[in-house]
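Hi U.,

Before I forget, here's the chain from the pilot set. I'm dumping it here mostly so it's searchable later in email.
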Amino acid sequence: MQVSKDDVKRENIKAHDYWAQYHDNLVSYSRFGANKKYYERLLTNAINKYSDIKPKKVLELAVGTCIFHDYIKKNFDQFTGIDISQEMINRCLEKKEGYGLKNFNFECVDFDEFMEKNNKKYDLIFSFSFIHHLFDISKFKDKILDKLTPGGIYIALHEPNPHYRASLFQSIDSFFYKRMCQINSAFRVLAGGSRNKILPPNFNDEIVDYQLINADYFHNFILSSKHETYKYYDFILFNRFFPKNYSFIVIKNENNCS
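Structure:
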């Protein structure tokens, strides 16, 4: 199947507009308080370990419904959240009003468009489960580095690592291996939870999670970044067999911050 950037963008807008109404109860780091605190600790630890500066101006990519608004409000001065889904942004704006998030700004915009038109620099950029939705990640690191202040970092959390998952089966069944790399559907049943029951009409999961199709390419991108892997605690039994389902990626602007 020939897939274009417009295809990926269209399917992601369609899917995430639909998921917006369920999002706060859909993703594991919102459904379970312990998971949410766990990711907050990952963010804090990564900042303390890798960043040369105390972040004040922060950007979240694919902000969704701004699940971590309380953590952000407590720790940072200025926050910008972008998302390709207007429905997600609408729910962010409701939270902004409801929770008094005065220094929060939200914008419905495509990642590439935002990076091209925006001249601001950020001390910290982070995202949850975002990179694999992109059509082309070949220049992703350069775009991130261009928007980071010297000494600042980008943190990607909850990025699926399909190459690692699939490789466990490679020696058993090469055909099954290829199917896992291409579709990843068997893992969706276990790890996706309620997401599998909440699908928009004419939904194409392969296009929405586009980098899961290009498993080797995505895996190589992860390896080219400073990264750590961590267990996904939503399904303990699942992780006994697949301990590196998700990657934790850090990209740092190494320029002198003086």
